[in-house]
Amino acid sequence: MTRQGRGVGELLRDWRRTRGKSQLDLSIEAGVSARHLSFVETGRSRPSSELILRLAEQLDMPLGERNTVLLAGGYAPAYPSRQLNDPELAPLRAAVRQIIDGHSPYPALLVDQHWQLVEANSAVALFTTGADPHLLNPPINVLRLSLHPDGMAPRIRNLPEWRAHLLKRLHQQAVTTNDPSLYELHQELRGYPGGNDVAAPISDDAVSRVVIPLRYHHGDQVLSFVSTTTLFGTPLDVTVSGLAVEAFFPADPATTATLRTLAEPTAELG
After folding, report:
1. Which residues form the HTH cro/C1-type domain (predicted)?
2. The domain made up of 3-72 is a member of CATH 1.10.260.40
3. Whole-number Å distance between alpha carbons of 132 and 80
C-alpha cells in the first residue's frame, strides 16, 4: 500500500482513467490480456515490475509516479532522484549554464517541475526589477512572480492575454502530471487580478497572429518577446525529467536594440 492507502492496482487504474483509456485499449498497447489487466487493477493479480513499467510507459506517467507505483507493488524504484547539486549532475548543470549564459543579452532561466527558479542569466533582472522582495525570496516561483500584482503583472501590457496563456499551460501540465501542487498553484494564480482565464489578443500584428508574445513595459518603452521551452531528452532521473529552460527572444527590432544596449558595459568617465 502507498500514501492514502492505495495499492498498485488502484494507482494504475487511476492513471488509466486520467489518460482516458479503456482496459482494452491499454491491454492492446501494453501487450497484455484485458483479463489480466483487470485482475491487476482489482488486486487479484500481483504485477511484475516489468509489467508495471510497461503499463507506466504506455500511460506516459512521470518518472516519480512510476517509482510510486513500483513501491506500491513491492519493488524498488527504477529511477533515481538526485539533488541538483549532486556531483553526478554537474555536467548537466554546466550545460544548462552554457545555454542560458549563451542566450544573453536575452533573458533565459531554468525552472523545475513546480516552476521554481533554479538558474538564470543576468538579463532576467529586466523582469525582476521592481518586484516586491517577498516574491524574490528563494524558492522563487516564476509563475507567481509573473502574475502577482506585486510582481511583473503591473508592467505586462497584455496581461489578460499573457495570464490566460500561462494559466492554460499550467493547467495542462497539472492534468498531464496529476500533481496536486500544480493544481494548487493554478488555483492560487487564478485568484490574482488581471483578466479572465481566456482572453482575446489585444493586437493583430504579425507576431500575435503566430504566437502569444509577452509585451513588457521598460520605462517608457514596451518590449516584445516570444518564448521557447527546452526539455531534456530521454531523462532517466526524476529531478532532471522536470527541468525546463525558458528562453525569451526579442519579437521586434526595437526590443533587440534595447536589450543589446542594456547589456553594454557602462563607459568609464575620464
Report:
1. 12-66
2. yes
3. 37
